[in-house]
Amino acid sequence: MFAVYAAEPNAQDPLAALRIGERPEPEVPDGWVRVAIRAASLNMHDLWTLRGVGIKPDRFPMILGCDGAGVLDDGTEVMLHSVISDPGWVGDETMDPKRTLLTEKHQGTFADHVVVPARNVLPKPAGLSFAEAACMGTAWLTAYRMLFVKSGLRPGQTMLVQGASGGVSTALIALGRAAGFRVWVTGRSERKRALAERLGAHAAFETGARLPERVDAVFETVGKATWSHSMKSLKPGGIIVVSGATSGGDADAELSRLFFLQMRVVGATMGTRDELADLLRFCELSGVRPVIGTELPLERAEEGFRAMLAGETAGKTVFTR
Ligand SMILES: NC(=O)c1ccc[n+]([C@@H]2O[C@H](COP(=O)([O-])OP(=O)(O)OC[C@H]3O[C@@H](n4cnc5c(N)ncnc54)[C@H](OP(=O)(O)O)[C@@H]3O)[C@@H](O)[C@H]2O)c1
């Protein structure tokens, strides 16, 4: 079948590991289902996979793509929850020590077909296109958990999103605005800050700029490049929710500030199947829809990877079949 995959890990030149070609059709184990992919979205996670981060070397070649939406063999339209937990695991799937995301152990969605455990598909809401549904399982689910499960923010309070144009950042902006938070954003260019304001941010600032006042919560996926600004921008007792470290994870923790101002730092990763169902309902009730900056046929996936590597995204990048 047609697929976009990582041939081997390449830490220095991730795009050199990218292949567009043929891979074997997957077998369908008992209790699993086959999904004919109609749309799949690109995540930074796919660039980490090409670099060999978070995946064992003997797992290559690996079809990329954590998210997707498509059609079961019986014609049912579905979307994926890509956190695959151990069959015996009960409760929050993200807490299972044996859980994997699609593309860490099992082949991903940038292909004609993907196979997943039956519990990892949800009915695609009629109000979402395949492309929109394909954005939900990773970036949007992670943003939902950061905002509504981890942060403890109340409507009316102020949130800061570090980064304006990324998949998780644009989801945080749109969801935060719809939930009644005051949404402040930092972005690296005028174009990106304008995008944030179009999506509902109340104000967008240059990366690292001093804010008019300190905020109740900061949402971090950037890491080292913005960490110090996040710490300095937070009110005493405030919270930083972290789900990524694109620019590096080795920032100075600034422990003196942390304890003296009684700040909280909380990690977040993906979300549960139930939270994904709640996210879909929230979007239906609020009218919020994923922000898709680029839609390309899967054959042209390399263009999307290049743009993400260069930091030239404007929301989600979606590949269609
Ligand atoms: N824990 C989880 O479950 C989970 C889930 C999803 C994503 N993540 C992680 O979250 C991160 C973002 O993922 P994504 O898919 O949203 O990626 P993306 O679409 O490529 O977005 C990258 C974002 O990072 C910002 N950024 C990058 N480098 C920066 C720098 N040096 N200074 C300031 N801002 C910078 C960009 O801000 P500008 O708009 O200003 O350029 C942009 O908003 C990745 O590290 C990913 O692995 C984790």
From TrEMBL:
Fetch the InterPro entries from UniProt.
ADH-like_C, ADH-like_N, ER, GroES-like_sf, NAD(P)-bd_dom_sf, Zinc_ADH-like
- Which residue intervals define the domain Enoyl reductase (ER) in the entry? 13-319
Pfam family, any one = ADH_N
Q: Which GO terms describe its molecular function?
A: oxidoreductase activity
Per its record, how is this protein called by name? NADPH:quinone reductase
Which species expresses this protein natively?
Goodfellowiella coeruleoviolacea
The taxonomy runs: Bacteria, Bacillati, Actinomycetota, Actinomycetes, Pseudonocardiales
